[in-house]
Amino acid sequence: MTITLVLLAAAVLALPPAVGVRARLRVPGSNGSASVGVAPTDHHATAGALDLLSACLRGGLDIGSASSAVSSVAPEPMASALRRAAQLLTLGADPDAAWSALSAHPDTESVARVILRSARSGTSMADATAEAAADLRVRADDAAAAAGERAGVMVSGPLGLCFLPAFVCLGIVPVVIGLAGSVLNGGVM
């Protein structure tokens, strides 16, 4: 049984998607190429910052002052873009140039589109940012649900690999041996 487990562990590490397995086994902070990457954005924190921006705008602040106030509590890809936009808007820059940093990041690109659309059309930015926050929360919830469903599917493979051999060895083989013994010892034949 020990040899079987050792061979199973070696097979799991040698499978073609071994990069994912080795990345999960790697100690965080090691030099491996699979652990290098950009940290994912917390979409709920971004949505909270957008709600705060909306509240500042509803309270009467202009977009530059509201962006500057929110940049201190926003998550990082959004914080630096809000800070830059506030500085550029204070200097009188074009909204397209001011919000370009926000539109450069894929997680905040939809927010930049909403803000630019609102700046061009003159509609309320407070409503637009609140809408963007709600949309971001829905997308984050959908992504979390999809990840949970993927986890359930990914767990079924290892469980099948563990329980199916045990079921065969402990459930079917003794029955077959018992039946074969009674058949071969003068039972049916």
From TrEMBL:
Annotated ranges, domain Type II secretion system protein GspF: 50-169
Alphabetical keyword list: Cell membrane, Membrane, Transmembrane, Transmembrane helix
Bilayer disposition of the protein: Multi-pass membrane protein
Segments crossing the lipid bilayer: 163-184
Keyword Ligase attributed: no
Record's keyword annotation contains Membrane: yes
One Pfam family linked to the record: T2SSF
Lineage top rank: taxon: Bacteria
Alphabetical list of InterPro entries matching this protein: T2SS_GspF_dom
Compartment(s) of residence: Cell membrane
Main location: membrane
Name used for this protein in its record: Pilus assembly protein TadC
Organism of provenance: Rhodococcoides corynebacterioides
